[in-house]
Amino acid sequence: MIFTHDTEHALAVVVDLINTGAATSGAERLGGLPGLRAFVERNSFSDVGELTEADLLRVLDLRARFHEVFRAGDVPSAVKRINEIVGEVRTTPHLTDHDGYDWHVHFFAPGAPLGEHLAADCGMALAYVVAAGELDRLRTCEAPDCARVLVDLSRNRCRRYCDSRTCGNRMHVAAYRARQREAAH
């Protein structure tokens, strides 16, 4: 494990959030409150109350801003974007041990709206990545027809595709077939 459990979880949430957009997945998956509720349930958020249209608008805005961090290209640009995101929320760090996990830090106030929860926890997770000198772990899938993002948490930084069963497998099969065609000539 490169980062703590809660940081890795927040990074997975950022990736899932970004990849719900039409720009990365080809179809909008947060097109309304049902999509937002599915996102909250899929990512096992704790202490989230009733979701509103204001929550949806805030999350859509954060999705675009988190995506800018992945596309930043250099540390100063990423830092600027991350600082803007976390600087807009009231962070209230506190220890918690919910849902069977050991003690870890949440950066949002208990009962905070979903947008504050995401901006604080996910923004801080991205800040940890940059502070650790690991910005290059925030990537876009290398498959030519895929724009999904990923966080490469592999020890040797070898992850290239958003999903090894889809993009990774498709690219490996294409490379194999190309080698077979080459060998046949």
Main sheet overview: 2 strands, antiparallel
Helix content: 40-55%
Low-confidence stretches: none
The averaged pLDDT comes out at: 87
CATH class: Mainly Alpha
Spell out the CATH superfamily. Jann2411-like domain
Q: What fraction strand?
A: 5-15%
CATH topology assignment = Jann2411-like fold
How many distinct folded domains?
1
Following the backbone from N to C, one meets helices and strands in this order, namely HHHHHEEHEEH
- What characteristic shape results from the CA principal axes? globular
User: Widest sheet: strand order?
Assistant: 1-2
Please give the number of β-strands: 4
Number of helices: 7
Name of the CATH architecture: Orthogonal Bundle
Structural class: mainly alpha
- Give the C-alpha Rg: 18 Å
Ends distance: 46 Å
